[in-house]
């Protein structure tokens, strides 16, 4: 049985911690993995305990040994005071925003944010009387000029998951905190393994566990970790909304946790190799990958991040939509689909023109986002090479 002392755990490197965190075989009858606890009703030993709820588990929506295991592990690797789980990445964004905001407040969101987050702000938050200002992701400390007396939250995403602008999170956090605002960050691209959100000033760190934590495109999950100043409020908000993830998804996420760093390191290696290859292609105008030296945010990425993932974008030289479709439709190893970070490679065209408001999206050609999976890199190049042949042959 694993008997990991606190002193040993504190000294372990991340790969070892991911293998051992969030499980105790002594509490699982000797089995290595925490089983998926399913259920709504929890029994109490007597009336006094029922009335006081003086026991750890009280009802299915308030947590189980399975959810506790994942929360404990994620809290450790994120450097947080605590973590909550919800059914999706978007739900994690919603819970974090609802934790930080109230009627009449002002919210600031990076213009590179996940589009469904913008939709939530522009519809439901607007109906609640919460105003939203979108800002240029390159502003850094300059966001102070846009803050109002009622600004209560700043939602960041670094890098942006389509256009890959890297934000100066420490500078933004310093300014936001000076104005009494909470700093939220969607950290799904890097995970806490490659960017330590709370160490860089983030109060509420958002993660789509659907992505690298899962790694197999077979579950939906969201996580929000918080520092000590915000965890109690986050926990209360999540508890009152009663939106727990399903037990099987949490179980699968715990399983994915054990290999997450290995997969993330391979995604980094594969993604960078493919990005470098694409940067040499005559059909490509530019590659949007923060780890490339010519990326505008490379300096910030190198300063604050310890790695990169397998998600990046390219901008093609001007070609017709028909040519782009010919390129994508014939790909055999790259699937056409949303989400990312699974073991299979994906490609999807995108255009931010219709929803960017603080910045202008004018890349100079069609844009495609790639999620690089675990296939052999030479096979992926060959698939794309055939795609480029179709693209150039299409009028």
In this structure, how is the largest beta sheet organized?
A: 7 strands, mixed
- Beta-strand level of the residues, as a percent range? 15-25%
| Count of helix runs | 13
Structural Rg: 22 Å
Helix content: 25-40%
Structural class label = alpha/beta
Q: Going across the major beta sheet, what is the strand order?
A: 1-7-6-5-4-2-3
Low-confidence stretches: none
First-residue to last-residue Cα separation: 65 Å
What overall form do the CA principal axes indicate?
globular
How many DSSP E strands?
A: 12
Write down the secondary-structure element order. HHHHEHEHEEHEHEEHHEHEHEEEH
Mean of residue pLDDT values: 94
Q: What's the short story on this structure?
A:
With 395 residues, the chain is an alpha/beta fold. It contains 13 helices and twelve strands.
Descriptive overview:
It is a single chain. Helices cover 37% and strands 15% of the residues. The protein is α/β, with parallel strands linked by helices and 395 residues long. Strand 4 (151-157), helix 7 (169-178) and strand 5 (182-186) form a beta-alpha-beta unit. It is globular and about 75 Å long. The termini are far apart. 45% of the residues are buried.
């Amino acid at each position: 049985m694993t008997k990991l002392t606190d002193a040993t755990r504190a000294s372990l490197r991340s790969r070892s911690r991911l293998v051992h965190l969030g499980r105790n075989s002594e509490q699982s009858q000797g089995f290595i993995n925490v089983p998926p606890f399913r259920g709504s009703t929890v029994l109490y030993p007597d009336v006094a305990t029922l009335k006081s709820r003086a026991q750890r588990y009280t009802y299915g929506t308030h947590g189980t040994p399975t959810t506790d295991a994942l929360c404990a592990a994620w809290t450790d690797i994120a450097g947080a005071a605590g973590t909550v789980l919800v059914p999706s990445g978007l739900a994690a964004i919603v819970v974090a925003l609802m934790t930080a905001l109230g009627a009449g407040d002002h919210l600031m969101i990076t213009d590179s944010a996940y589009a469904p987050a913008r939709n939530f702000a522009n519809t439901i938050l607007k109906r609640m009387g919460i105003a939203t200002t979108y800002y240029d992701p390159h502003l850094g400390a300059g966001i102070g000029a846009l803050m109002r007396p009622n600004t209560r939250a700043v939602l960041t995403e670094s890098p942006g998951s389509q256009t890959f602008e890297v934000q100066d999170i420490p500078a933004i956090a310093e300014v936001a905190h000076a104005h009494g605002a909470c700093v939220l960050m969607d950290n799904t691209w890097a995970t806490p393994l490659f960017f330590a959100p709370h160490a860089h000033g983030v109060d509420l760190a958002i993660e789509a566990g659907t992505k690298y934590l899962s790694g197999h495109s077979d579950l939906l999950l969201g996580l929000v970790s918080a520092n000590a100043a915000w965890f109690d409020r986050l926990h209360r908000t999540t508890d009152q909304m009663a939106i727990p993830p399903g037990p099987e998804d949490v179980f699968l996420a715990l399983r994915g946790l054990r290999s997450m760093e290995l997969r993330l390191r391979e995604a980094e290696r594969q993604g960078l190799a493919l990005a470098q290859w694409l940067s040499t292609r005559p059909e490509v105008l530019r590659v949007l990958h923060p780890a490339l030296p010519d990326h505008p945010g490379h300096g910030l990425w190198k300063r604050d991040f310890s790695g990169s993932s397998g998600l990046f974008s390219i901008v093609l030289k001007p070609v017709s939509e028909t040519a782009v479709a010919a390129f994508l439709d014939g790909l055999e190893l790259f699937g056409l689909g949303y989400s990312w970070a699974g073991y299979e490679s994906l490609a999807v065209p995108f255009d931010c023109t219709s929803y960017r408001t603080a910045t202008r999206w004018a890349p100079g050609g069609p844009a495609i986002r790639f999620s690089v999976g675990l296939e052999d890199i030479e096979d992926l190049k060959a698939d794309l090479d055939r795609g480029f042949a179709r693209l150039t042959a299409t009028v």
